[in-house]
């Protein structure tokens, strides 16, 4: 591969770009197509044999799709990538592509809430049983394995509470038992954590977040070893009917070019805010993987190369209307559920009903913060005013 030996910043800038195949144009063209023509019956037959490796129909992806897939696989270091229209579509594609009725799934208890919905709803209906496990279980996950356990699903750091899992210990157990592993790697992106380096079979990304980066595109990406590509691509494009639009693929590829610059700034601002909040008397705990005291910090320090802009804050117990007043008056922190764009966000995080393996122990309300690209001093001023409202001042 041409990108071997190059640094991530260089790969993100150049991978998937072939200007001299496109009359010198720097960015790959946008190919919009539903129908793809064949030169002959022989051409049709040969391409159809390798349907998900060749362009045969618009739903399977155009040259624009292939450019994004090429760039993303180079950055993560995987063999193949499947691109779908949303992060949740990436989750369902990964799960349904390898699980069958009668299989058992081990799902991390801190998973993205819609992932739990897929497990408790659709998977249960088709005879796939899910057991939720404590994200900090490590090698102890061996006690939950069954003869029919097919997949261990990780999300590290976890949604809302940001525990970093002991990935090598869990992968070691899985490999010893012949079990597949997959990880939702949206928070770290391939810049800060590369699943293939840890022996993980499938990576899952809500590219809606940092990959696209501007809060205007929906997209998911599933990465995998070569032998898993056909079943995952068939599930995505053939069974579920997912089609990633070429315009969105183009925008995602453009977002990938600036990922390092943006993520570096998100990281710096988030750490500034997290450390400032950690000194505030209104705050019980800051949940940020890069800070000591957050569960799994030692695993983050060992395995992960950086941190993004998303973290949590546990407030000291107070009246619910005080928390509402704090949130309602924020000027720079918008209130919205997605994240990974250029803007800062803050939402209340409901944790009392979203855990089943291990209850969330905090008494105070938790808020989730995304540090955008604004000046940190302006964001701190907004937070300071918000904490004054929290106190009732």
Detailed description of the structure:
There is one protein chain. This protein has 393 residues and is an alpha/beta fold. It has 2 domains: 8-257, Aspartate Aminotransferase, domain 2 (3-Layer(aba) Sandwich), CATH 3.40.640; 259-391, Aspartate Aminotransferase, domain 1. It is built from 13 helices and 11 strands. The protein has a 7-stranded mixed sheet with strand order 1-7-6-5-4-2-3, sandwiched between helices. A 4-stranded antiparallel sheet has the order 8-9-11-10, covered by helices on one side. α5 links the parallel β2 and β3. The longest helix has 20 residues, at 259-278. The chain is globular, with a radius of gyration of 22 Å. The mean pLDDT is 94.
């Amino acid at each position: 591969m041409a990108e071997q030996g190059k640094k991530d910043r260089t790969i993100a800038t150049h991978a998937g770009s072939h200007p001299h195949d496109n009359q010198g144009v720097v960015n790959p063209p946008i190919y919009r197509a539903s129908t793809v023509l064949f030169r002959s019956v022989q051409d049709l037959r040969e391409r159809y044999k390798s349907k998900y490796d060749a362009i045969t129909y618009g739903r399977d992806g155009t040259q624009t799709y292939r450019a994004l897939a090429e760039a993303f696989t180079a950055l993560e270091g995987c063999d193949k990538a499947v691109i779908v229209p949303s992060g949740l579509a990436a989750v369902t594609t990964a799960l349904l592509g390898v699980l069958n009725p009668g299989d058992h799934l081990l799902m991390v208890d801190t998973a993205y809430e819609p992932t739990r919905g897929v497990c408790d709803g659709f998977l249960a209906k088709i005879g796939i049983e899910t057991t939720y496990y404590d994200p900090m279980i490590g090698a102890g996950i061996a006690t939950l394995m069954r003869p029919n356990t097919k997949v261990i699903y990780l999300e590290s750091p976890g949604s809302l509470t940001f525990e970093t899992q002991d990935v090598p210990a869990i992968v070691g157990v899985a490999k010893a038992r012949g079990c597949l592993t997959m990880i939702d790697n949206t928070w770290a992106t391939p810049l800060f954590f590369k699943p293939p380096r840890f022996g993980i079979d499938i990576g899952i990304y809500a590219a809606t977040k940092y990959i696209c980066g501007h809060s205007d595109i929906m997209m998911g990406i599933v990465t995998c070893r070569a032998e898993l590509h056909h079943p995952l691509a068939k599930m995505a494009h053939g069974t579920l009917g997912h089609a990633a639009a070429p315009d969105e693929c183009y925008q995602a590829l453009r977002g990938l070019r600036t990922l390092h610059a943006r993520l570096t700034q998100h990281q710096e601002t988030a750490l500034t805010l997290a450390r400032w909040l950690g000194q505030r008397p209104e705050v019980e705990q800051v949940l940020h993987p890069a800070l000591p005291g957050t569960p799994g910090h030692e695993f983050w320090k060992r395995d992960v190369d950086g941190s993004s802009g998303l973290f949590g804050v546990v407030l000291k117990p107070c009246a619910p209307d005080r928390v509402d007043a704090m949130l309602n008056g924020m000027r720079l922190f918008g209130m919205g559920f997605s994240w990974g764009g250029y803007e800062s966000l803050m939402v209340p995080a409901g944790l009392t009903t979203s855990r089943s393996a291990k209850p969330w122990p905090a008494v105070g309300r938790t808020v989730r913060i995304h540090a955008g690209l604004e000046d940190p001093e302006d964001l701190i001023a907004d937070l300071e005013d918000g904490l004054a409202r929290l106190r009732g001042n």
